[in-house]
Every structure is written in C-alpha cells, then in structure tokens.
TrEMBL record:
Xref: SUPFAM superfamilies: S-adenosyl-L-methionine-dependent methyltransferases (SSF53335)
Protein species of origin: Pseudogulbenkiania subflava DSM 22618
InterPro entries: DNA_methylase_N6_adenine_CS, RNA_MeTrfase_RsmD, SAM-dependent_MTases_sf
TM spans (from-to): none
GO biological process per UniProt: rRNA methylation
Top-rank lineage group of the source organism: Bacteria
Molecular function GO labels: methyltransferase activity; nucleic acid binding
Xref: Gene3D superfamilies: Vaccinia Virus protein VP39 (3.40.50.150)
Keyword Transmembrane attached: no
Keywords for this protein: Methyltransferase, Transferase
A Pfam family hit: Cons_hypoth95
Name assigned to this protein: 16S rRNA (Guanine966-N2)-methyltransferase
Length: 186
C-alpha cells in the first residue's frame, strides 16, 4: 500500500504544502485538492475570526485547511477513536492551537453542543443518510449568516436551506449552503 495514498496536503494558508498522514478506516476519503481549492475560493482565502465545525472530520483535510487560513477556532468531531488519535497527532505536528478534536458521534455532538459556528463542514460517509439527519439539527449551532459546506452522493431534500454555490467532482455533489431567510426580501 502506498504511503502517499494515506496523506492529505494542505493547499493554502500558514500550513500550505504540509503533508498529513491519516489511517486506513472504512469510508474515510479526504476531500480532493481541487474541490478544497474551489471551496476556499468561494469562502475567501482567509477565515480570520471564524468559528468552524468539522463534523465527520476523517482525515481532517477541511478542518486543518480552515485552521491554516486562520480560523479562530476549529472543532473536529470524529467518531472513530483511531482516526481521532491521528487528528490529534496532526494537530500537534502543526502546532495548531486553534484546533480541538472531539471523539464523539456527530449527531450526539450536535444535540449536546452549546456553541455557535460561522462555518460547518459536512462530509459524512459516502451514500449514508447522515446528511438528512444532520441538516435539521444544525440551526441550533449556527451563528447568524453561517455557511455550511456539504458533500453527498446526491442532494437530499434541503427544506430550510438554499444552495449558494455548488459543483460536482466525479460522483460527489458538493456545495455551500445557507439557511433560507423567508424575510430576507422584506
């Protein structure tokens, strides 16, 4: 097995070009460089002052990318203890003070969370129904004007959400979501 296969490269910011290892784990597939580049072009290259939540953190590609771009705080939630230990090791390798790793199921985390986030990354296991379960729980942890990045095999019903930007890479749909604001036209 190729060592390069289990590495993710940070593409921008303070940790640019750093290679981070991650373990083999079922369903673990980092967001490709090209998709991350598109996402951070949408968001802007600097995330100064933002509180970010990376649910289903996996390799940490999205969360470490946000920390690299100076997010104030990045909470990475990962259910697998083995994968979470890798995230903690990479946090230490980068000396990423703004990153916190939480070992917990994403649904349980959202139900117990009392923080507010400006940006949430949702990259659940491919072809799972977790996106449909998570989206209704998110408003309770979102700051005003928060944005949500999501990846899915296909878009679920997005009641209460609007797609701000979207793209497709192979079989994966990805996009930036915002909450519907029925009163926004007033």
């Amino acid at each position: 097995m190729s060592q390069a296969r289990n590495q993710v490269r940070i593409i921008g910011g303070d940790y640019r070009r750093r290679q981070l290892p991650f373990p083999d784990a079922e369903g673990l597939r980092p967001t490709p460089d090209r998709v991350r580049e598109t996402l951070f072009n949408w968001l802007g290259q600097e995330l100064d002052g933002l509180n970010c939540l990376d649910l289903f953190a996996g390799s940490g590609a999205l969360g470490f990318e946000a920390a690299s771009r100076r997010a104030r705080r990045v909470v990475m939630v990962e259910k697998s203890r083995k994968v979470a230990e890798s995230l903690k090791a990479n946090r230490q390798l980068l000396a990423a003070q703004s990153v916190e790793v939480v070992v917990m199921d994403a649904v349980h985390y959202l139900k117990s969370c009392r923080e507010r986030f400006d940006l949430v990354f949702l990259d659940p296991p491919y072809r799972s129904e977790l996106l449909e379960q998570i989206l209704p729980l998110l408003p309770a942890v979102l700051a005003d004007d928060a944005r949500v990045y999501a990846e899915a095999a296909s878009w679920p019903g997005l009641d209460g959400w609007q797609r701000i930007k979207e793209g497709r890479a192979g079989l994966v749909h990805y996009g930036l979501l915002g909450r519907d604001r029925p009163d926004a036209s007033l």
